[in-house]
Amino acid sequence: MAEICAKLGHSSGRPYCRWCEPLNSIVEISRRAGAQQCCAPTSEVQTLRDDFDEEAVHPGHRSIRLKGYDYTSEGFYFITICSHQKRCVFGRIVDARAVLSSSGLILRECWVAIPSHFGRTRLHEFVIMPNHLHGIVEICSKLGRSSAAPLRGDVVAAVPPGSLGAIVRSFRAATTKGVHEGLKWRGPVWQRNYFERVLRDGEEFSKATRYIHENPARWEWDRENPERKPLPSQRETR
Length: 238
Hints:
There is one protein chain. The chain is α+β, with helices and mostly antiparallel strands. It has one domain (2-232): Alpha-Beta Plaits. 33% of the residues lie in helices and 16% in strands. It contains 8 helices and 6 strands, in the order αααβββααββαβαα. The protein has helices spanning 2-7, 20-33, 54-57, 102-112, 114-117, 164-183, 202-214, 232-237, and strands at residues 75-82, 91-94, 97-100, 121-128, 132-139, 195-199. Strands 4-5-1-6 form a 4-stranded antiparallel beta sheet, with helices on both faces. A two-stranded antiparallel sheet has the order 2-3. A hairpin with a 3-residue loop joins strand 4 (121-128) and strand 5 (132-139). The protein is globular, with a radius of gyration of 18 Å.
């Protein structure tokens, strides 16, 4: 975590800045409980706050490509990728844990393999939900390689090698191929677009990490849940 602090430009005299210091305990809990294995612990997830603002802690549900921004540049990127028509095909949520289906397991295998194809990348917190994936991808300064290609027949705009767009395109192509060949699926697996945000400081990194970590516990209220319920505070005001 101290390394992340340094990369985000924090310069306090302590090992962690005021944003990353509380976040450090979340990450340690996440590692012990296997949150980076796509599921959140049930006993140590922070309870849903009454003032929970999904827009504030979910910086990625709309495409906000920054005009002129170099998406090959080093930094931290929060990504959301949704299934085609937001169908719940990647698994289900049981007791605040993501239980992955066969397609969800293929998705996870392809996600964790990203650094093998893109040597400049590091993966941070991620979670696979029934119909979408959240993850934080770091693009580092070292040069790497890309060995995966888009599926034949896809219409692909010019995407710079090693960029965030190339990473997402390669990941989606690999999962689609795996699902089609391994499970004999037909048709698209993913929505055409994906959602991303550049995490510019510790506050944004902390909020994104916390949101990902707690996402399974919030599935009941998640905007991507086709059976979404109103937030507790919304029910009280009706």
